Amino acid sequence: MYEQYLQEWQPVEENYVSPWGSDGSGHRMVEPKRGYPISERENFELVLNGKKPVYMPFITDMLAFSPRIIPDNFVRAWVLEIDPLLPGSPCDGGPDMFGVEWQYVPVTSGSMVKPGQPKIKDVTRWEEYLTFPDLDSFDWEGSARANAPLFHPDRMTRIWLMNGLNERLISFMDFAPAMMAYVDEEQKPGVHRLFDRLCDFYDDLIERFRHYYQADVLMFNDDWGTQNGPQFSLDTAREMLVPYMQRIADSCHRRGMYFELHSCGKNDKLVPAIIESNVDIWLPQENINDFDLLYDLCGDKLLLGIPTDSTPEMTDEEALASAKRFMEKYGKDGHVVVNTTFPPQHPRVPEYLYCLSREAYK
Question: Helix count (H) and strand count (E) of the chain?
């Protein structure tokens, strides 16, 4: 029954160049280009425009791109490009593009702001503390030339912006003062002025992402939750964040780009704010969220990234059963993207979901 689809699944001679560096032998890693009836780009365009795809899209169908030219990516050990610095690699941290000092924490394979040294000590006077980066001083043309082998017309380029609005405010002020500033009537005007200026800055940055890299998707990294629930109320999100999220979404949309939100934490109570932010793709944190609930809450308002329940230890038969469960729960209308970022999943699940979805969507 699936013989035709298995044939399509086979890699073709051409490969995609990977941003994940070299293998143990020093050879540049590649990602397979398969014999799909339409390209990954065309398939994503269908689902992002509310149409049924030809096959179920995976988040890995896009190029993950996080260039070294942005200091935030380097100090947080998340450089995915032709010269990568991967999570878990030795990293000394350092200043981000706003001069905030980060330190690398090996046990977490990530970085945190050095505590107790907030860049902004009083958000009502943030202009006295903060200098915005001069984006004209960055070697955009050199970065674009170096990374040209990564870009391919058959797949979308998904570019990271590591610190969004909430995360940026926390990095400037530390966590507790930032949360207080959202609800303190004397501090709110300062936060609004800062976010207004950040939106102008991000608009300039997005223009360069589009111009130099032909980026298709902005992956906006902005954690809004904790393990147990949101960092702030829905009302606070609507007042303090949504108007500026809408501006960033507009910065993407008027350039022909899509706006993706990666937001860790248990954020089901903030779904209305996320929808109102005009987000195109939302990748919630795996493990702690109820994806059945999120799927029902989001409906067709955005494209939700959902992990499968497979594990690498499963047999092939168990992995196929996992793929069938996923298809039955979330895949019937094709309005979903499979999130295979974390945790590790069974290696054959993508193959199984491809065949199952090809049959379902024909």
Answer: 13, 12
The answer to whether 312 and 340 have CB atoms below 8 angstroms apart is: no
Helix segments in the chain, DSSP class H: 3-9, 40-48, 71-75, 140-147, 166-173, 175-183, 188-213, 234-240, 242-253, 271-276, 291-298, 316-330, 349-361
Which domain CATH number covers 231?
A: 3.20.20.210
What pTM does this model have?
A: 0.97
How many Cα atoms sit within 13 Å of 1 on the Cβ side? 7
Residue 295: Cβ-neighbour burial (10 angstroms; 0-12, 13-18, 19+): middle
Q: What digits encode the pLDDT tens for the residues 39-94?
A: 999 999 999 999 999 999 999 999 999 999 999 999 998 999 999 998 777 788 89
Q: Which domain range does residue 12 map to? A: 3-361
Nearest Cα residue to 123 out of 167, 184, 76: 184
Q: What φ, ψ does residue 80 adopt, rounded to 5°?
A: -115, 100
Domain count, the chain: 1
Q: Does the pLDDT of residue 1 top 70, yes or no? A: no
Amino acid at 165: L
Least confident range of 21-25, 41-45, 99-103: 21-25
